[in-house]
Amino acid sequence: MAFKDIAGNVRVRRILKLALERGRVPNSLIFGGPDGVGKSDMALTLAKTLNCRTLTTDSCDECPSCRAIDSGTHPDVMVLTAEVRDVKIEQTRLLKQMAYLRPMIGKRRVFIIEEAENLNEPSANSLLKVLEEPPDFTHIILVTASPHRLVPTIRSRCQTLAFSPIGREEIEEILIDREFSPEQARILALLVEGNLERALDLEWDAVRALKDEAWDLFASLDSADRSCLFLERFGAVPKAVQEEFGGVLELFSSFVRDMLLLREGGDPALLLNPDFEDRLREASSSWSARRLLGVFADLDYLLVELDKNMNKGLLATTFFSNYGELRHA
Ligand SMILES: [Zn+2]
What is the phi-psi region of residue 305: left when phi exceeds 0, alpha when psi lies from -120 to 50, beta otherwise? Predict the structure, then answer.
């Protein structure tokens, strides 16, 4: 994959290309940002470009060097993956030794450390010197979804490039290219919150099932005898269910947003849930705009708090009780 094929993160790509044009790619880099947004692809593409035999500001993906890096057989490019939740001290020692050796066949040595937040203290310490004063021909890229978990002494020695989630529309386009219908693409893109990798992994049937379940829960909030279903599901949440909580809330939020759209006579072509148009229309007729806006704002708040790793059970309980009050709005 070349820079031109990587989705999203235009700013990061621009910075890297500029650095490549000027021949001044930083030797110690942190690629930080959420999962599934292409950090590892970007790191590998940078490694390929630094060693490419035909191009200078992108990888050609065809020369022997690019191919060897893609197949993991290039002796100057090493990817360490923290499979055991920990990059082993021996690996970082090896890295440290190799970092000072001139590249064997390529132009630059590149070390990519995945899940760098799992570097334990001895490993991190052993890297400090090489991160501080790497040889010109060596680049070390620390890839992490939690840059704040890297020790400050490592962070201060590296230049950090911050990656962002991939835009919803861009994910939609990629999914449509992969033979999903525009309607399915819209629904999937909504669910994954900018995580392109997850979008490409999702199975349409599983998503359908999750949507149906989310709708049942949503509808139950207004039903006298079933209103506690939501709390039973998310109030005292076991961890497995917690994982789904964010996705269900995203869906709730999309339901309410669609109900507002329909209530205000908006264009149904703009619905996030075109497959639910009938039930959304029916539900929206009994809601006041004030209540819809109130619940929408609540969900928005909840999703922001969720990102901060707040107690999900407590958030669910608070949402539930606010929802009850808004019923009379
Ligand atoms: Zn090449």
Answer: alpha
What pLDDT, in 10s, does the model give residues 220-255? Answer: 888 877 777 887 777 765 555 566 788 888 899 999
Domain that holds residue 211: 203-326
- On whether residue 186 sits in a domain, the answer given is no
Whole-angstrom CA distances from 72 to 44, 54, 67, 78, 271 are 10, 19, 9, 8, 44
Among residues of the chain, what percentage have pLDDT more than 90?
Answer: 55
pLDDT at position 269 is 84
- CA–centroid distance, residue 251 to ligand 1 (Å): 43
Ligand 1 centroid to Cα of residue 3, in Å, is 12
Q: Is 54 inside any structural domain?
A: yes
Distance 162 CA to ligand 1 centre (A): 26
- State the Cα–Cα distance between residues 169 and 239, nearest whole angstrom: 31
Distance 24 CA to ligand 1 centre (A): 19
Residue 4 alpha carbon to ligand 1 centre in Å: 14
Ligand 1 centre and the CA of 67: distance in Å? Answer: 7
Give domain status of residue 189, yes or no: no
Å from CA of 135 to ligand 1 middle:
23
- 239 vs 91: which has the higher pLDDT: 91
Mean pLDDT of 292-300: 91
Instruction: Select the more confidently predicted residue: 71 or 327.
Output: 71
